[in-house]
Amino acid sequence: MADLKITLIKSAAHRLPKQRAIVKSLGLNRVSSSVVKPDNAATRGAIFLIAHLIAVEEVK
């Protein structure tokens, strides 16, 4: 199974509290910070809710 590299490209400041919580739970702290997460339904659901703030790449 592949992993997803998630990079925060826009700030989560002044966003809805739910969106800020998702960004924090993914482990993204600052703009341009990246994390690698497994490609599963939970991660995909979180990505869908904050898609306008992040960039996603598939890594193997």
TrEMBL record:
Q: Does the keyword Ribosomal protein apply?
A: yes
Q: Which InterPro entries match?
A: Ribo_uL30_ferredoxin-like_sf (IPR036919), Ribosomal_uL30_bac-type (IPR005996), Ribosomal_uL30_ferredoxin-like (IPR016082)
Q: Where is the Large ribosomal subunit protein uL30-like ferredoxin-like fold domain?
A: 4-54
GO terms for biological process, alphabetical: translation
Domain of life where this protein originates: Bacteria
Q: Does the keyword Ribosomal protein apply?
A: yes
| Membrane spanning stretches | none
Can you supply one Gene Ontology CC term for this chain's record? large ribosomal subunit
Q: Name one GO molecular function term.
A: structural constituent of ribosome
Signal sequence range: none
Q: Which UniProt keywords apply?
A: Ribonucleoprotein, Ribosomal protein
CDD domains in UniProt: Ribosomal_L30
SUPFAM superfamilies the record matches: Ribosomal protein L30p/L7e (SSF55129)
What binding partners and quaternary form does the record give?
A: Part of the 50S ribosomal subunit.
As for family, the record states: Belongs to the universal ribosomal protein uL30 family.
What is the recorded name of this protein? Large ribosomal subunit protein uL30
Organism field = Fructobacillus ficulneus
Top-down, what is the taxonomic lineage of the species of origin? Bacteria, Bacillati, Bacillota, Bacilli, Lactobacillales
